Amino acid sequence: MVFVGLLVLSLFHLSLVGSHQSSQHASSPPQPAGEQPPEGSDNLSFPWSRLRLPRYIIPLHYHLHLHPNLTSLSFTGSVQIQIDVQNNTNWVVLHSKGLKISNATILDQNLTHLSDQVLPVLHHPSHEQIGIFSPRVLSSGQKYFLYIEFAADFAEGFHGFYKSTYRTSTGETRTLASTHFEPTSARMAFPCFDEPSFKANYSVRIKRNPEYISLSNMPIVKTVEVGDGLLEDQFDVSVKMSTYLVAFVICDFKSVTAATSSGVQVSIYASPEKLQQTSYALEVAVKMLDFYEDISTSAILFPSKI
Ligand SMILES: *[C@@H]1O[C@H](CO)[C@@H](O)[C@H](O)[C@H]1NC(C)=O
Ligand SMILES: *[C@@H]1O[C@H](CO)[C@@H](O)[C@H](O)[C@H]1NC(C)=O
Ligand SMILES: *[C@@H]1O[C@H](CO)[C@@H](O)[C@H](O)[C@H]1NC(C)=O
Ligand SMILES: *[C@@H]1O[C@H](CO)[C@@H](O)[C@H](O)[C@H]1NC(C)=O
Ligand SMILES: *[C@@H]1O[C@H](CO)[C@@H](O)[C@H](O)[C@H]1NC(C)=O
Ligand SMILES: *[C@@H]1O[C@H](CO)[C@@H](O)[C@H](O)[C@H]1NC(C)=O
């Protein structure tokens, strides 16, 4: 059975079109990253001068673990990205914006660390890129796992991984955290190859307090206790998709669910007090899906858009 998570958040969804500033000015001449002699990391210089990422490292699968905290309004996380290396190189260059990187390592296919030490991470803030230096050459034709730990505060505004609040009828303010990644804000939530042509599968895990729920593109496979009274939701692996389609929400919303004629589950989430107002939205969503199922023989699945 296909699960369709359709999120209708009655929230100020401001689309700040054009707010992304990319520094287009005077991009220095192309300087391909390649073999570099292992030297003291003090003397490393950023290996890549273009806005677009090098093409010779392809992300295949992201294992993303997130631990958002709606009290401290910050999050920590780790991402393990399986990469396909198509040219010998000592460098992995990818996007990251406003994230504190605490640990970066590279492992081979056998999950053996290439280096005993935490790898040097260089930053190119104006291009929103980081470069991770491996003293051992990554070999063309091999696959590796890039592992990075990071932390940040929730973003202010409506891009990246940001916090929102809503007020209950008793005047209490509640906080939730959600994502808006289009076109280039996934890099504010986790280090990634944040260009639409780099499509990969995603396996997302989110830690939360029991009084909250978490939602992402895919249904939850299981929820486990992870100590400190926290639960971890483990979401199913996604189809191959671009970073900007990844989405998640941590909130105390409730849901109503209905099934289409072919058994596709449609759920609508809303703040507990707005839940009664969602029945029309649910009816429309179910009808819409019935329509699409009629015109396409296979069940459709689309990522929850927030
Ligand atoms: C780093 O660069 C400085 C000057 O640019 C040089 O004196 C020093 O020897 C270099 N260190 C290493 C380890 O290459
Ligand atoms: C890979 O390396 C070869 C030889 O150094 C070079 O000719 C080629 O352009 C490189 N390809 C990419 C995608 O960087
Ligand atoms: C968030 O941080 C506070 C302390 O600042 C802690 O008491 C709480 O358990 C944390 N929540 C989560 C979900 O980790
Ligand atoms: C960095 O992460 C690796 C992989 O999980 C771990 O083995 C290592 O202990 C970590 N290092 C630090 C300094 O946190
Ligand atoms: C992984 O382990 C196998 C068996 O131990 C070995 O043959 C292979 O060379 C290893 N691969 C890498 C990339 O180290
Ligand atoms: C990744 O997504 C593709 C479809 O886009 C799917 O065929 C493949 O099985 C997925 N990979 C994993 C590991 O689930």
TrEMBL record:
Comp. bias intervals (Low complexity): 22-40
Transmembrane segments: none
This protein's GO CC annotations: cytoplasm; extracellular space; membrane
Membrane topology: Single-pass type II membrane protein
Domain Aminopeptidase N-like N-terminal as annotated: residue spans: 59-245
Keywords, ordered alphabetically: Glycoprotein, Hydrolase, Membrane, Metal-binding, Metalloprotease, Protease, Signal, Signal-anchor, Transmembrane, Transmembrane helix, Zinc
Similarity annotation: Belongs to the peptidase M1 family.
Protein name: Aminopeptidase N-like N-terminal domain-containing protein
Organism: Eleginops maclovinus (Patagonian blennie)
